[in-house]
Amino acid sequence: QVQLVESGGGLVQAGGSLRLSCAASGVTFSSYFMGWFRQAPGEERQFVATINRSAGSTYYADSVKGRFTISRDNAKNTVYLQMNNLKPEDTAVYYCAARMNPWSSSFYYTEVPQYNYWGQGTQVTVSS
Known about the structure:
By secondary structure, this protein is mainly beta.
């Protein structure tokens, strides 16, 4: 029923930028908290960024603060991750995730089990 499709990944050189997009369907998008996670080969999936329903509150992992920006456009059912000053250690598969919540809140979610739905991921590779 719920589908999340990521796009925008690719190969960039260190210091470059990418913008990831996640298009949601089969949901009332404004009822969902959204998040981005990433997973490098041989490692656990880790939190990157999250945004609440109204886009009034965001939270980032320490490793990406000041470089990444999460945003959402509820009219387009899309969440974005703008990634600037990319580093080789940012190389990973990036996943979009959604958590349904019937009310608006400034609370943030940073754990994999806190999200209900996941996209298939998009590869980001940063060359040194």
